[in-house]
Write a structure and sequence with these properties.
- By secondary structure, this protein is mostly helical.
- The chain has a domain at 30-129: Arc Repressor Mutant, subunit A.
- It has 7 helices and 3 strands; from the N terminus they run αααβααββαα.
């Protein structure tokens, strides 16, 4: 399969949208995060989970950038990062390129927690993916990354409603 122009049928776009909505519903549901936190054997307010997960995946992030990633406002995320900081899971550092920007980064305790969560996530996903071949899983990863990259580029290049910036 190539990454070129292809005719998209309305039915296929509807099926894609339905799949994305189903995945989004699962991802945004509090149940999977709560189950993962419990399975990892860690104590963490579920509302803080997306922040520590994103910092672990992206590295040091400015508060505004983190807020954009998790879809929350700056003030809420700043308060939540302060909570993570008080728990010893993140530290704030000054951005080396712009001293006005505070970035959140994981501490050793934060890395230990995210490692425990990653181990629990692997245990959670193994039964779901047990019947998948390695080739199917590799194809899923490739296509999901391609879709995520294209959607991210579209958001950066437009105002969110299709008009070029």
């Amino acid at each position: 399969m190539t990454h070129g122009k292809s005719p998209l049928r309305a039915r296929d776009l509807g099926r894609l949208r339905e799949s994305l909505l189903d995945l989004t519903a699962v991802i945004n549901s509090p149940k999977p995060d709560a189950a993962l936190i419990a399975a990892a054997g860690v104590e963490l307010d579920r509302a803080l989970f997306p922040l520590i997960s994103r910092i672990e995946r992206q590295g040091a992030l400015g508060i505004k950038e983190l807020a954009d990633f998790v879809g929350r406002d700056y003030t809420t995320v700043s308060r939540q990062v302060s909570k993570l900081e008080s728990l010893g899971l993140v530290a704030r550092e000054t951005d080396p390129h712009d001293g006005r920007i505070s970035r959140a980064t994981l501490t050793a305790d934060g890395r230990a927690m995210t490692s425990a969560i990653d181990r629990a996530r692997r245990k959670q996903f193994e039964p779901m993916l047990a019947r998948w071949s390695e080739a199917d899983f590799d194809e899923l990863l490739r296509l999901m990354r391609m879709l995520a990259d294209d959607m991210t580029a579209w958001m950066k290049d437009t105002d969110g409603v299709g008009k070029a910036r």
